[in-house]
Amino acid sequence: MTQIIHHKADMNLLASQYLQQGKKIGFVPTMGYLHEGHLSLMRGSKKENDITVVSIFVNPTQFSPHEDFTKYPRDFKHDLKLLNQEKADVLFYPSIQEIYGKRTQERTNIRIPESLTQCLCGKYRPGHFEGVAHVVSILFHLISPTRAYFGQKDYQQTVIVRRLVADLHFPIEIRVMPTVREKDGLAMSSRNIFLTKQQRKSAPLIYQVLLFGKKCYKDGERNSRIIEKKIKDLIHQNKNIKVEYLEIRDAETLQTITRINNKAVLAVAAYVGKTRLIDNILL
Ligand code: AMP
Q: Which DSSP category does 63 fall into?
């Protein structure tokens, strides 16, 4: 049975007991409403560590006021069933108060280099990655994992977490697991539940155009503007999808590139109805 822990002191104590016993902790941070994508991270952790700790925390500081914090899907019973099924050892399930206390303003914050936050999702979600870095740091301190698991689906997040860990000397290995998809290619996401039948039919186009972009690259095209233009023309044919950004950037620095000479990422964010979906592919 997965052990459920609500309080930070209990989490911290349990983690230190495991560490004293010489056990390696694998950590999977989530916002719940678990699906196969999350489960793949847990399986990755179980393979490499003695103990797997999963957190479920819908972090208010990474949502802007106009975003879907209160509407974010939650289903604790279902999540717990999956955690038990996967034999996750510990679920850390704190309240907002437990993580942030009474203080809502003037917290100590983490500033991430603008080159990583002012582009892609960060440009459209101001403060989002600072919120992510903040809560991830708190969780890392409480749980002291040897390894932490993130999904490639949130590509910019993986780059920022790696930088956070390097710059603040967290003794943690970051593992990035491949994006898990539905049969038709749509990246699994807790937010997919918001799609109507019609929108759900349109949504796989997001991945199809990424594959098309990769094909252009494989066929020898190295000009990122040309690939971006071709893909945009394709995706704009579907009136249900409104592209927020669709860009090729350097996979490590996230800087724009006109010629693809190094490892690059083709990343997209698009609204299907009111639901914002993201996806990416490496070139
Ligand atoms: P979330 O609950 O959406 O904050 O996601 C928690 C973790 O699961 C993050 O590291 C995500 O990148 C990862 N994740 C979400 N969806 C997928 C997916 N389809 N495939 C792989 N990892 C995923």
A: S
What b/e readout covers 54-65, taking b as 16+ CB neighbours within 10 angstroms? Answer: bbbbbbbbbbee
Contact 2, 80 (CB under 8 A): yes
Q: Which residues are catalytic?
A: 38
Residue 277 Cα, ligand 1 centroid: separation in angstroms? 12
Tokens of residue 64, six digits? 């802007």
Q: Phi then psi for 207, rounded to 5 degrees?
A: -75, -35
Instruction: State pTM to two decimals.
Output: 0.97
Nearest residue (by CA) to ligand 1, atom 6, is: 30
Return the DSSP state at 204: T
Kindly report, residue by residue over 166-200, the tens digit of the pLDDT.
Answer: 999 999 999 999 999 999 999 999 999 999 999 99
Per the CB < 8 A criterion, the answer to whether 31 and 69 are in contact is no
